[in-house]
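#data-curation
PF: Archiving a pair of folding outputs for the training set. Convention for this channel: one message per protein, sequence first, structure tokens after, nothing in between. First:
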Amino acid sequence: MTDAATTTNTTSAPRAPRSDTRSQGAGASGGADRGGRGGDRRPRRAREPRARSEYDNKVLDIRRVTRVVAGGRRFSFSVTIVIGNGKGQVGVGLGKAGDTALAIEKATRDAKRHLITVPMTEGFAIPHEVRAKYAAAQIMLLPAEGKGLKAGSALRTVLELAGVRNVSAKILSRSKNPLNNARAAILALSKLKPARAKKKGEVKTK
């Protein structure tokens, strides 16, 4: 009985907690490898600022287009955008995609492909009167030296981004389509011819 009691007391004695050196070692090395608090951190690379585009842009119109197919309806977006540098270059673009951001990107690329250069006087006015018609839109541009920009709707956006500051624009049609009005303005500006410089001693004749 003495042997049995001795054996029972020996097995019931509490054991001391054993430290797992392998897990601690792995954690320490893993933290150092992953750049934790105990390890050396890699220096962050400074991000270079994005180069700003020389062209300003403005969205004229965003439309949601629905197409009916065999499986149901498919939605896409149509975006009309105007870009210009304010120094005589301006363009109008149209982009279509299933996402608005992608449609704007496509419209911007389309506008850059169709840039025109607008001839202007020293007072940032157009050299002469001009009219243009695109689809159902019909407009007229008149030079207005020192009178500022008198235009509305899509015409004002196109003229502002082109850098024209002294002009009077009129929409002669009833069309309210911003894309047609903007393209009519581009067509009118493309018809402009540079003003001929007067020669010394030249007299203006009627």
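PF: Second:
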Amino acid sequence: MSNKTEVGIMGGTFNPMHIRELALAQFALEQHRLAKVIFVPNGTPPHKKTDVLDRESRFEMVKAGVRDNPLFEASRIEIDRPGITWTIDTLKQLQEQLGDNVRLNFICGEDVIDNLVRYDRRAEFLGLVRLLICPRSSDNGHKALPNWRATLPEAEIELIDCPPSGISSTLIRNWIRAGKSIRYVVPAAVLEIIERKGHYKQVIDGIAADTSGTASTEVTITSMKVGRRKRKTA
């Protein structure tokens, strides 16, 4: 057992943040005794080519969404950094900021396993974090855990026991455009911002223009665009 302070890292586009993400972070915090969870909204992710709100608006919603939980924190680390940002670089910067007495716990979905298998900096990445993985369904997690560990034997992997959910940012955006209520699907503070500013009334053509003046291409944490995969050899 580690004697270090355990800190959760949860990232993504948060377009917009919703209650499933907050619940997952809370499950991880309680089940694995995390001191806190840091939410890391990204800047301009290359995997999201359309319908992405600008970074400052998304950060505003994340900050509002976590403010009533003293163990949740919103980070600007990728919002403020220009240029292409790989997840591994974000983790290194967070580790440097938090100190050697902290262990990073990477909160993610089980698709991280396949992505890491093909990642050429896998050993370096896994040396930075413990993986806390949410399964696709509540039924397969305990059965899948031994397979995950066998697939990535160099990784420290633990399960987040959580119920399945169909809530997603895409679903929420579609509901807004259909005139459906998103009350209780997003945090109340996020709902207030969306309604007051009229976010997502129309499909955004590409990634919304940044107001920060530091346009960049970012890589998300939750979808595990961790870096370039190994090239196939002939």
